[in-house]
Amino acid sequence: MNKAIIKHINKLQQKKYRNEFGEFLVEGVKGVGEALEHAEVQQLIVDGKRRDEDQLAGLILAAQKKDIPVEFAGHNEISDIKATETFSGILALVSMHDNDLEDLVNDMPIICTVGVRDPGNLGTIIRTADWFGISNILLSGDSVDAYNPKVVRSTMGSLFRANLRESEDLVYDLRLMKDDGYEIVALDMKGDDISKLEPSKKSIYLFGSESHGVDKELDSLISKRYTIPGAGKAESLNVAIAAGIVMSNL
Amino acid sequence: MNKAIIKHINKLQQKKYRNEFGEFLVEGVKGVGEALEHAEVQQLIVDGKRRDEDQLAGLILAAQKKDIPVEFAGHNEISDIKATETFSGILALVSMHDNDLEDLVNDMPIICTVGVRDPGNLGTIIRTADWFGISNILLSGDSVDAYNPKVVRSTMGSLFRANLRESEDLVYDLRLMKDDGYEIVALDMKGDDISKLEPSKKSIYLFGSESHGVDKELDSLISKRYTIPGAGKAESLNVAIAAGIVMSNL
Question: What is the pLDDT of residue B219?
Fold first, then answer.
């Protein structure tokens, strides 16, 4: 295996190189399988010693059928790869795919994260949306990016079914959507009881990061606010839990 | 500051030493504040250079009022402390408090985790329960322990308001509770729609780890099963999200 490939892989741990090359990493059998099915895979890297294991052999075959190059890595090469955790036998280099705003205009609501910086939280939100059949995900520019390896892993394959847009100017995007008839709905501490929420397909549901709440700049665009009523003393709900509860009401 | 204290602190990163000493670590202003209010704090360790900062000075005063010893650490000592992330200026050594089964018998339902190994998931479940005013938490022996530093941190202080029991034999505990009139309710893939759940205070809600589902051994004890209906292609919901949605229905 070419040393340049390992260098390239390790660079893709960083956002600036992911954006430069338009590629990101997917680790593990489950994620790579989903990527081969739903995304544009550039290359597979497989632990050469484990190539005959059933699951890995199946993925290698699937890649070869699509003329996707497969590289086999030796022991030393694997130890040079900076994977999220220990190298899980297989990884894929996958093309990033960002959508235009109009690609999110379809027969479904939109989940929008504002400044969600924890990769596990963003990944879990994307996975939960997929569970409820919601594919439209709009991310503010200051959210962790969806191609961060920890986000990718915690989406458990749901990333590849998401209809994703990373917005460079969220206020601008939301204004356009509002002009198009969308209702901007936010979860915060001072809204109506969430049980009163009436689901609508032309709605954008905002989830702000816990420490900041929903951005003040967006305030004027929000037409409805809901609260998940609590009975205890906890200061707040985790943003992914809050999003999950809202989505279960849609 | 005594070197033995640093050794002791670092040992408390490991479960076997936490159990041996009956103590665990709480890091950061928020957690230490909650510990001083709700738990038995043995000792505070404070970054000596930062002792005059408002928040830290307030906590030092609160500790001194309760005759809790406060140690000030110098630069070198701090770099010897293995905290979860960078040392956040303050940490507390706190006594572990495990409850008997009968301590969980009160006017509230019980949240029970079965084999939940991810610290972030367990911490988030405890925090979410606190949000909904549910303090009774029963953990199976193969769950991550609640005093793991990552669990402590992700409960965001809710740990100290929890009425917690780590069960050594969950099947035995659940049998006793069932004999006492409790209903064992599980979330799984083949139950009734969660919207049909009728909350009861004499219920124990089981949440299994994602890869195993609820333990087969417990099967015979479960009298009701519910499902969170999904419309998408995700294989499963994250266990903390599932627990959050169930708790929002209680």
Answer: 84
